Amino acid sequence: MISLRDKLKNLPDNPGVYIMRDEYGSIIYIGKAINLKNRVRQYFQSLKNQHPKVAAMVERIADFEYIITDSEIEALILECNLIKKHRPKYNVMLKDDKQYPYIKITVREDYPRLLVVREIKKDGSRYFGPYTDVGAVNMTIDLVKGLFPIRDCSKNIGRIMGKERPCLNYHIKKCIAPCRGDVSKEQYRELIDSIIMMLEGKQEEVLKQLENKMQMAAENLDFEKAAEIRDKINSLKKIAEKQKVISSAQMEQDIIALAINEASSCIQVFFVRGGKLLGREHFIIEDINLSDSKEVLSSFIKQFYVSDKIIPREVVLQEEIDEINIIERWLSDKRGGRVRIVVPQRGEKQKLIEMVSKNAEDTLRLLLEKQKSDTDRTMGACMELKDILGLDEAPMRIEAFDISHLQGVLNVGSMIVFEKGKPEYRNYRRFRIKWAEGANDYESMREIIFRRFTHGIKERNELMAEEKDLELGKFSVFPDLIMLDGGVGQINEVLPALRELNVSIPVCGIVKDDRHRTRGLIYNGSELEIPINSNAFRLITNIQDEAHRFAINYHKSLRSKTAIESALDEIPGIGAARKKLLIKHFGSLKNIKKATLEELCEVKGINNKVAETIYNFFKS
Questions:
Q1: Beta strands in 69-184 (DSSP E)
Q2: The domain that contains 78 carries what CATH number?
Q3: Which of 319, 342, 374 is the last residue of a domain?
Q4: 418-429: buried (b, 16+ CB within 10 Å) or exposed (e) per residue?
């Protein structure tokens, strides 16, 4: 194997991407360089003057590789794609790469349409956005279509023109119905041009055009049309009033600022189009590993714009970033036109940056407050439980069990899991009671506990023999605390079962008051009073409610399934396969009973004769 020293000697002078790996072969950092030799060697010089993050990373580098590219822009694109794919530990990572909705106008069609899309394609259509709220997009489209009655269908207008009657939208004046054949492309294009101007923020121009048309209609004594245009003008004015003008620059701008602390950062983006605030979004970047604000901002921009997004003509930043020229060229290539990255020092843009920066600081502050509140509510509750029960350690994993049945019929059990005070849904399990008979909650509880830990011991032994992680098993991870929905009776049944299996885990019962509400815990034979306003009490209540909900839902699903199967079993010619087809098609026994003969005949795999038998069975 070639040593790091030899690899460093043979590094090329070309631009490219370098990939750092640790002793296990995992990728821990990906970077790009104009000159691979100079850049990569810098990491392995004296660590005294290195950034703390770089020093920590270099200590873990066991190997590296590189990919030569033809240009620095190619290296930047490759770097972005590799970071997105591998998500290395020491790169600043944007975790929530959101796909925003855009308004698309299919301008290449003879009679264009408005669509809401989340993917931008190079198909010649016009795209407007990004919008950060789907509700706002739908509202905008509804308003636009209310003012300008364009088509909503996806029909081939050229093929059906004059051959079909117009749909309801025409009769309620929501569409001018080009399908009738009496609407020219030019007339329709006027509506589309007005919509485009509106979405570009040029409402004033649209208003002037509408006012001229209203004046002409009034002069021609067409007062009905003039009144209709007047109503559109009033609606458009209301829309314009709602849109906040924050910039006199009539261009596309993304204004980006960040707030940063020792653990995480919040980046705020304002999307300004035509001087108006179209929307805003914030991004939380955690585990920034002592990165400075320039690195966080630079990494964000590369990861944010690597996906298919509308690149604005101008990106306004809070501070200078490294590689600003190459990033500017990359964005220009993606946009297909000049993109400027500006860092204003005074004037209107500087005031905009200050506003976005304050929003970022406020969002980060609220996030930290929420994190503290969540920690008090979850981990804090676990710490309170530790003190209440007198445990050595806080119970990080709690498993709770409940029983559900209907007068001893269809007995089921539930196992729910809370980790660090939060429900861990993927670890929930449910049991059909096999051994206990009748309405015997004590014996049923003993059975599910015995089966759960029997499975767990078996899985643990198998995984340990194969030197595999215990997390791979369904039952191999054991809890720190067991909670039972019940009192002393359930506990006295469960403790001997655990001793029989040599499992030593604290067990407590959750008891309820006369109104069936959580009252407290029974532990070591005593009932413990827990303050009702404490985080521990809220956690116990949540656990009891969740265990009960999960058990009840399982029992209901079995009852429903049994009811359907028992009713269908009585019908001649209906076996297991046809039962499955009917249930899949109709969803419930109620729907099967209500089905007409024609609807039953539509079920694939059910012939006419069998459909008639089913129909007559339920109608007789």
A1: 102-105, 114-117, 126-128
A2: 3.40.1440.10
A3: 374
A4: bbebeeeeebbb
> What total number of domains does the chain contain?
5
Give 478's Cβ-side CA count (13 Å radius).
18
Residue 208 CA, chain-centre distance (Å), reads 43
Residue 213 lies in a domain: no
Read off the pLDDT of each residue in 209-220 and give the average, rounded to a whole number: 81
- How much of the chain exceeds pLDDT 70, in percent? 90
- Which band of pLDDT confidence, cut at 50, 70 and 90, is reported for residue 561? low
Residue 443 domain-assigned (yes or no): yes
The pLDDT of residue 386 = 93
pLDDT digits (tens, 9 = 90+) for 161-173: 878 888 888 888 7
Closest CA to 367 of 280, 255, 292, 259: 259
Which candidate, 439, 450, 435, 436, places its Cα nearest to that of 494? Answer: 450
Q: Is the pLDDT of residue 250 over 90?
A: no
Please enumerate, as own/partner, the contacts of 7-14 that have beta carbons within 8 Å and a separation of 24 or more.
7/64, 8/40, 8/41, 8/44, 11/36, 11/37, 11/40, 11/41, 11/66, 12/36, 12/37, 12/66, 12/68, 13/37, 13/38, 14/68, 14/69
Domain residue limits at 603: 570-619
Percent share of the chain, pLDDT over 90 = 20
Residues 339, 431: one domain? no
Q: Residues 401, 484: contact at Cβ < 8 Å? A: yes
Strand order in the sheet with 276-286: 276-286, 264-273, 252-260, 314-317, 340-342
Q: How far apart are CA 277 and CA 275, in angstroms?
A: 7
Specify the pLDDT at position 406: 65
| Residues 546, 598 within the same domain | no
pLDDT digit string, tens, across residues 24-44: 888 989 989 898 988 888 888
Q: Are residues 297 and 406 in the same domain?
A: no
Residues 74, 167, single domain; the answer is: no
Cis peptide before 130 (omega within 30 of 0): yes
> Does 610 score more than 70 pLDDT?
yes
The answer to whether residues 105 and 196 touch, using CB atoms and an 8 Å cutoff, is yes
Please tell me what DSSP assigns to residue 289: T
Which residue, of 319, 347, 374, is where some domain finishes? Answer: 374
**Do 308 and 176 share a domain, yes or no?**
no
Q: Are 27 and 21 in contact (CB under 8 A)?
A: yes
Residues 494, 482 contacting (CB under 8 angstroms): yes
Residue 212 lies in a domain: no
Q: What is the pLDDT of residues 421-436, one digit of tens each?
A: 999 999 999 888 888 7
Question: What pTM, to 2 d.p., does this model score?
Answer: 0.60
SS3 232: helix
Of 275-289, 368-382, 481-495, give the lowest mean pLDDT range: 275-289
Q: How confident is the model at residue 257 (pLDDT cuts 50, 70, 90)?
A: very high
Q: Which two structure tokens, joined as six digits, stand for 505? A: 């885990």
Which of 135, 108, 140, 137 is CA-nearest to residue 121? Answer: 108
Q: In this predicted structure, what is the pLDDT of residue 456? A: 92
How many angstroms separate the first and last alpha carbons of the chain?
83
Residues 329 and 451 in one domain: no
* Residues 406, 394: Cα–Cα separation, whole Å: 37
Shared domain for 449 and 539, answered yes or no, is yes
The answer to whether the beta carbons of residues 185 and 191 sit under 8 Å apart is: no
